[in-house]
């Protein structure tokens, strides 16, 4: 089992009346009313320090992602964060998980091939190359990509990046969205033929089919927790079976919010308000914006509506405001409690979902810096050791982890 | 979803663009041809088309990719220019090969303008119902893709709770049928977005001078999707006339069918 901590880098001090005063946390929140550069700088540095603390405390990987124009998580270029993290962890066997640069809205996408290659060189071959299609808010609203083109642009960018990393000779790339006369990327990654590729998704059919077909890792970024992610992961594994691929659990990753305190009661006391903050304020987005028309391809759209999963997700999201702390914890949307409780639940969840790579979100919403570090410390001391060997008895190799750091980290 | 109350509507399958684009054209009525190009929500046969079919043969093509069973038909069409060429081929395929009247609603209005600007001889009369396609900074544009259904009703209808709006927005009660309608609506908007997103300006203002057809622009004064201020711009740039109607918003041909019906019929016959 490989366990990484992923950070969203949110605004930690949104005002009490945020949801009544503003339409959305994404796309339209007014910067000048809500934050300033000094404050943002403090958050960026705290986030880097929290990830660094996770790396130093025993995590296998640390990760960042890309979002735009929002207070939910504002790392418009995750590779700027990644560079700092790579340099600061050169003494550690820690994966640099970029989960990551958004393919359809990075123009030309050859920039991702370049920046990821830089990260792999700087980190000494520790990069995990996430290749997300991006949220609808980011790609369609903030970056102006017509929703229906998002996937086609994604597939084209993917092809360009993979070829750019592996081709020995310069080549002309004649795409619909990108035309380049002579692709000859400098630098190339250390990892040969290329860094492991993770395909993050929120559960749409086409994304996990794409990941399985190309033998990449499918990384489910759900905020609905392990119970509700089960249906998606079951679908993924049955597709893996249909394709005649092996059931190597390291093919899959899953993101889970995790909070650890000394006792269950202490966890409720410490984290309740921050979970509330996250689901009230950080998820404050008009429902249609999550998937504008055309954002899903026809197969995923039809599958979501016919299977009822789209309606279920909408209902859950509309219902978050009514959830109590107990609801979030009982439904495993947040796995929170004492180290024993958290370890039990996480071991159960990863086995149930058959995932070999776990991503935790240990900073949630308004959590202050010291509390975040304490939760990370407890996780690394008392939970992580119980997760490491979950899949060892099956004897699989984690092909989706950088080869240099594939061995179990000494704790 | 609405169906004709008075006409038998024929569905014609057409294959164009070297065999890469299959779509459908709804045809009904008798008389000289009139082409209707639908808005982003997709093609629905409504009372306005019923009225036109009393004096004309109405040809209403589905935007390629939005016809039932053909969701991939948009894939080989890259941009607005190619879409215009595809429509030219669709009209040929259903036998509208002479000059004909063309009516476009909202998104369909922009497509109609491009057809008339690219093939001036193909379009004898042009009726634009709240067309998109021109852009002036600062003027209201309320992107319908971002709205929930109740917000959409308020933006598109002067009387969002009135019988016309309710009939236009009515959903099947059977969940399975409703699911299929939702898929069709979402997908139609998705496909149409290819030709206007993120700003409904694909350079029509540079081409619109090529239009030679007599042009009638009709707008609802309460339009909450796109500002009625554009009505005068379209009229000026096409040398046509603009009518801004009270008691209507983005769908004047339904909310003020009593006025728009005779106005359009008279214009087409004049």
Average pLDDT, all residues of chain A: 96
Order of helices and strands of chain B: EEEHEHEHEHHHHEHEHH
Low-confidence stretches of chain A: none
- Overall geometry of chain A: globular
Structural class call of chain A reads: alpha/beta
* Element string of chain A (H = helix, E = strand): EHHHEHEHEHHEEEHEHEHHHHEHEH
When the domains of chain A are counted, the total is 1
Under CATH, the topology of chain A can be stated as: TIM Barrel
- Tell me the fraction of residues in β-strands of chain A, as a range: 5-15%
Task: Draw up the topology in text.
The complex is a heterodimer of chains A (411) and B (270).
Chain A: E1 2-7, H1 18-21, H2 31-34, H3 37-57, E2 61-64, H4 78-88, E3 95-98, H5 110-122, E4 127-130, H6 136-142, H7 150-166, E5 171-174, E6 179-183, E7 197-201, H8 205-213, E8 217-220, H9 225-242, E9 252-260, H10 264-282, H11 298-306, H12 309-319, H13 325-330, E10 334-337, H14 339-353, E11 357-361, H15 369-387
Parallel strand pairs in A: 1-2, 1-11, 2-3, 3-4, 4-7, 7-8, 8-9, 9-10, 9-11
Antiparallel strand pairs in A: 5-6
Helix pairs in contact in A: 3-4, 3-15, 4-5, 5-7, 8-9, 9-14, 14-15
Chain B: E1 10-16, E2 21-29, E3 33-37, H1 47-52, E4 57-61, H2 80-93, E5 100-105, H3 107-118, E6 123-129, H4 149-156, H5 163-169, H6 175-193, H7 204-207, E7 214-220, H8 230-238, E8 241-245, H9 252-255, H10 257-269
Parallel strand pairs in B: 3-4, 3-5, 5-6, 6-7, 7-8
Antiparallel strand pairs in B: 1-2, 2-4
Helix pairs in contact in B: 2-3
Write structural notes for this entry.
The complex is a heterodimer of chains A (about 400) and B (about 270). With about 400 residues, chain A is of the alpha/beta class. Chain A has a single domain, classed as TIM Barrel (Alpha-Beta Barrel). In chain A, about 45% of the residues lie in helices and about 15% in strands. An 8-stranded parallel beta barrel of chain A has the order 1-2-3-4-7-8-9-11, surrounded by 8 helices. A two-stranded antiparallel sheet of chain A has the order 5-6. The model of chain A has no long low-confidence stretch (mean pLDDT about 95). Chain B has one domain (about 10-270): Alpha/Beta hydrolase fold, catalytic domain (Rossmann fold, 3-Layer(aba) Sandwich), CATH 3.40.50. The longest helix of chain B is centred in the C-terminal third of the chain and has 19 residues, at about 175-195. Chain B is of the alpha/beta class and about 270 residues long. Chain B is globular. The two termini of chain B are about 30 Å apart. The interface between A and B is medium-sized, with 23 and 24 residues.
């Amino acid at each position: 089992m490989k366990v990484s901590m992923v950070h969203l880098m949110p605004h930690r001090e949104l005002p009490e009346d945020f949801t009544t005063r503003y339409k959305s946390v994404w796309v339209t929140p007014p910067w000048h009313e809500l934050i300033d550069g000094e404050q943002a700088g403090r958050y960026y540095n705290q986030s880097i320090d929290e990830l660094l603390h996770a790396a130093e405390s025993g995590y296998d990987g640390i990760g960042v992602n890309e979002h735009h124009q929002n207070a939910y998580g504002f790392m418009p270029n995750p590779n700027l964060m990644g560079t700092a993290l790579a340099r600061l962890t050169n003494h550690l066997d820690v994966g640099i998980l970029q989960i990551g640069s958004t393919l359809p809205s990075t123009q030309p996408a050859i920039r991702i091939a370049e920046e990821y290659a830089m990260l792999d060189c700087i980190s000494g071959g520790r990069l995990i190359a996430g290749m997300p299609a991006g949220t609808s808010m980011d790609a369609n609203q903030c970056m102006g990509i017509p929703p229906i083109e998002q996937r086609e642009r994604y597939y084209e960018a993917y092809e360009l990046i993979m070829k750019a990393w592996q081709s020995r000779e310069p080549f002309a790339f004649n795409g619909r969205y990108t035309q380049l006369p002579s692709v000859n990327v400098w630098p190339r990654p250390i990892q040969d033929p290329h860094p492991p590729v993770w395909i993050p998704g929120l559960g749409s059919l086409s994304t996990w089919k794409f990941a399985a077909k190309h033998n990449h890792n499918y990384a489910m970024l759900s905020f609905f927790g392990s119970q509700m992610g089960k249906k998606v992961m079951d679908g993924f594994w049955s597709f893996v079976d249909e394709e005649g691929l092996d059931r190597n659990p390291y093919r899959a990753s899953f993101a889970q919010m995790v909070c650890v305190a000394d006792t269950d009661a202490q966890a409720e006391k410490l984290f309740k308000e921050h979970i509330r903050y996250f689901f009230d304020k950080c998820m404050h987005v008009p429902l249609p914006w999550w998937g504008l028309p055309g954002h899903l391809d026809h197969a995923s759209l039809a599958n979501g509506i016919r299977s009822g999963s789209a309606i279920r997700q909408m209902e859950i999201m509309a219902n978050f405001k009514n959830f109590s702390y107990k609801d979030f914890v009982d439904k495993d949307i947040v796995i929170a409690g004492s180290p024993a409780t958290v370890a039990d639940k996480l071991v159960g969840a990863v086995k149930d979902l058959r995932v070999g790579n776990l991503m935790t979100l240990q900073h949630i919403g308004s959590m202050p810096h010291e509390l975040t570090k304490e939760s990370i410390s407890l996780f690394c001391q008392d939970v992580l050791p119980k997760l490491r060997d979950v899949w060892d008895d099956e004897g699989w190799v984690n092909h989706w982890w950088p080869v240099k750091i594939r061995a179990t980290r000494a704790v | 979803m609405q169906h004709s109350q008075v006409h038998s509507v024929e569905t014609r399958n057409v294959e164009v663009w070297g065999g890469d684009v299959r779509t459908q054209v709804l045809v009904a009525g008798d008389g000289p041809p009139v082409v209707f190009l639908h808005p982003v929500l997709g093609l629905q046969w409504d009372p306005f088309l019923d009225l036109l079919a009393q004096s004309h043969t109405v040809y209403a093509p589905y935007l390629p990719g939005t016809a039932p069973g053909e969701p991939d038909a948009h894939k080989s069409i890259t941009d607005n220019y190619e879409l215009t060429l595809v429509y030219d081929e669709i009209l040929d395929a259903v036998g509208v090969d002479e000059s004909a009247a063309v009516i476009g609603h909202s998104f369909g209005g922009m497509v109609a303008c491009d057809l008339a600007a690219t093939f001036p001889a193909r379009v004898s009369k042009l009726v634009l119902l709240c067309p998109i396609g021109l852009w002036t900074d600062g003027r209201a544009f309320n992107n319908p893709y971002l709205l929930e259904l109740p917000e959409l009703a308020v933006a598109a209808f002067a009387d969002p709770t009135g019988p016309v709006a309710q009939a236009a927005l009515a959903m099947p009660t059977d969940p399975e049928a409703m699911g299929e309608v939702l898929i069709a609506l979402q997908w139609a908007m998705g496909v149409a977005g290819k030709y206007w997103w993120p700003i409904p300006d694909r350079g029509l203002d540079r081409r619109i001078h090529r239009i030679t057809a007599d042009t009638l622009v009709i707008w609802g004064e309460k339009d909450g999707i796109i500002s009625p201020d554009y009505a005068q711009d379209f009229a000026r740039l096409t040398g046509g006339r603009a009518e801004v109607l009270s008691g209507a918003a983005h769908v004047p041909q339904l909310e003020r069918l009593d006025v728009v019906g005779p106005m359009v019929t008279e214009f087409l016959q004049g």
